[in-house]
């Protein structure tokens, strides 16, 4: 696994506390798309790969989960970097969107895996209880951004891009 992922990173709960605007847009768009987002990983040859994934919040972390033994998880096993992008549903971005940048950490904790499996069973009826998880990836967030279209009574619509990095407050870039 590549360990050359520079820069500070935070847990999901720390990200939510530090970046309330971006995390709110991510959560809203993630839920609106049925928990589906697109994930970018790095292929063995260095080119990008885009794959659907259904990250889940659980016990203060964001878990990158999906069908095991797929190329996206092989990618993460080789190079921990990823980008998650919420589904953009229109070219005007009227519902907003968000991107999370980070790296994964494999958490080999069978008790945690079983608590997660129970939560999934209770939530959607998928029965993973009792199964062994070869890899269980927690997301560490190294940066994030969101886009929102803001309308005012006396001003034309404008796009606000909110950007966040660990250790700094969110900042807004306005595009007209």
TrEMBL record:
Keyword rRNA processing: no
InterPro entries attached to this UniProt entry: F420H2_bilvrd_red/Heme_oxyg (IPR052019), Split_barrel_FMN-bd (IPR012349)
Name of the molecule in the record: Pyridoxamine 5'-phosphate oxidase putative domain-containing protein
Superkingdom, natural source: Bacteria
Residues spanning the membrane: none
UniProt keywords, alphabetically: Oxidoreductase
């Amino acid at each position: 696994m590549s360990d050359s992922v520079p820069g500070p990173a935070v847990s999901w709960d720390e990200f939510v506390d530090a970046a309330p605007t971006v995390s709110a847009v991510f959560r809203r768009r993630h839920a609106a798309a049925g928990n589906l987002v697109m994930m970018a990983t790095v292929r063995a040859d260095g080119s990008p790969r885009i794959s659907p994934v259904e990250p889940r919040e659980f016990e203060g972390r964001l878990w990158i989960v999906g069908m095991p033994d797929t190329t996206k998880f092989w990618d993460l096993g080789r190079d921990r970097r990823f980008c998650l992008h919420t589904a953009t549903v229109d070219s005007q971005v009227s519902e907003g969107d968000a991107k999370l940048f980070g790296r994964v950490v494999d958490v080999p904790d069978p008790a945690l895996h079983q608590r997660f499996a129970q939560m999934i069973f209770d939530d959607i009826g998928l029965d993973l209880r009792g199964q062994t998880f070869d890899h269980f990836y927690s997301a560490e967030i190294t940066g994030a951004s969101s886009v929102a279209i803001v309308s005012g009574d006396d001003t034309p619509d404008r796009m606000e891009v909110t950007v966040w990095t660990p250790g700094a407050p969110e900042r807004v870039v306005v595009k007209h």
